[in-house]
Amino acid sequence: MPHTTPVLQADGLSFGHGHSTLFAHLSVLLPADVTLVCGDEGVGKTTLLQLLAGVLPTTGQLQIRGLRLADRPGAYRQQVSWFDPRDHTLDELTARQIFNTLPQRHPDHEPRP
């Protein structure tokens, strides 16, 4: 398997609700490709995606294409598209239609080849 440089890197993410810890010191490297996040209902998939998108506060470090969330939150979030799975306005759209909304959501984003 060829080595690819990670696009998104998370180091030491921790997150919890009340007295319950959902993630503790989680580290991941995501390549420039499609990544599937799957699991049972209520195990933290949506929360993990929100953490990686920089939508929820967390301890640890996040960076995408060299941009650290802690240093440049606006630039970091400009590189990430977060679609809430509970947003019923997306139910009638195809994946292609949703991806076609990216230029409107991120006007300063320059697509990567």
Description:
The protein has 113 residues and is α+β, with helices and mostly antiparallel strands. The protein has a domain at 6-82: 3-Layer(aba) Sandwich (Rossmann fold). The chain is 22% helix and 28% strand. It contains four helices and four strands; from the N terminus they run ββαββααα. It has helices spanning 45-53, 73-78, 95-100, 102-105, and strands at residues 6-17, 20-31, 59-64, 67-68. The protein has a four-stranded antiparallel β-sheet with strand order 2-1-3-4. Strand 1 and strand 2 form a beta hairpin. It is globular, with a radius of gyration of 15 Å. The two termini are 21 Å apart.
Spans of 5+ residues with little confidence (pLDDT < 50)? none
What's the story with the biggest beta sheet? 4 strands, antiparallel
Q: Give the overall pLDDT as a whole number.
A: 84
What's the alpha carbon Rg, rounded to whole Å? Answer: 15 Å
Q: Please name the CATH architecture of one domain.
A: 3-Layer(aba) Sandwich
Shape summary: globular
- CATH H-level superfamily title of one domain: P-loop containing nucleotide triphosphate hydrolases
Number of DSSP helices?
4
- The share of residues in extended strands comes to 25-35%
Q: Percent of residues in helical segments?
A: 10-25%
The CATH class designation of one domain is Alpha Beta
